[in-house]
Amino acid sequence: NSTVRDLTITDVTINGNVTLVGGLAGSITSSSTNSVSTITNVDIVYADADVSGTITNLGGIAGVIENGTIINSSTVSNLTTGTASILNVGGLVARINSGTLEDNGVTGIQISATRSVGGLAAVNDGTIRNNGTNNTVEVVINYNATGYAATVGGIAGSNTGTIYGNVANIDVNI
User: How far is it, in rounded angstroms, from Cα 126 to Cα 96?
Assistant: First the structure.
């Protein structure tokens, strides 16, 4: 059981060749659903720079959530993912394997990827609820992939979980 709360991280720059990348953590995991990791009131402010390198999962806050929750947190940036080779990109999280995004915001992110892209999460196998109700969700998705089975969505690029109660201003360019 772990908790991160009331934290602001500024001037984040991402570059390199890694699997899991996020402004706070590459992976937010707990060993079971009885031991949930919680992220509350965390704001990530990216530097005005492009992401570069080869990255599998890139999320504004975390690359992957496993048995975790992100509540009332946000990412803000003039960050673009244009020069990087990235498979899955989400404004908050690349992959939600089992977990929840609730009452979060995303502003100013321009996302590009080669497989799955989502305004909040690229791949959702958890729950995305009530985001954008108290925090702004504004994302621009520029999608130009070749050679992959691609999924693109304003909230989630791919969804086998639950999505409800979200308010977003998403611009998708394919």
Answer: 6
At 40 the three-state DSSP class reads: strand
Whether the pLDDT of residue 52 is over 90: the answer is no
Residue 13 is which amino acid? T
For residues 44 and 75, give the distance between their C-alpha atoms in angstroms, rounded to a whole number.
5
Q: Which amino acid, 127? A: T
User: What is the distance between the alpha carbons of residues 117 and 45, in angstroms, rounded to a whole number?
Assistant: 20
Q: What pTM did the predictor assign?
A: 0.86
- Checking phi first, is residue 53 left (phi over 0); if not, alpha (psi -120 to 50) or beta? left
Q: What is the pLDDT of residues 81-125, one digit of tens each?
A: 666 677 888 888 999 999 999 999 888 777 766 678 888 898 999
Query: What is the CB neighbour count within 10 angstroms for residue 86?
Result: 25
Do 87 and 63 touch, CB atoms closer than 8 A? Answer: no
Please tell me the distance from the alpha carbon of residue 108 to that of residue 88, in angstroms, as a whole number.
Answer: 18
Q: What are the structure tokens assigned to 119, written together?
A: 């305004």
- The neighbour count for residue 114, using CB atoms within 10 Å, is 18
Q: What's the whole-number mean pLDDT along residues 37-61?
A: 80
Nearest Cα to 16, choosing from 113, 83, 78? 83
Beta-carbon count within 10 A of 108 CB: 18
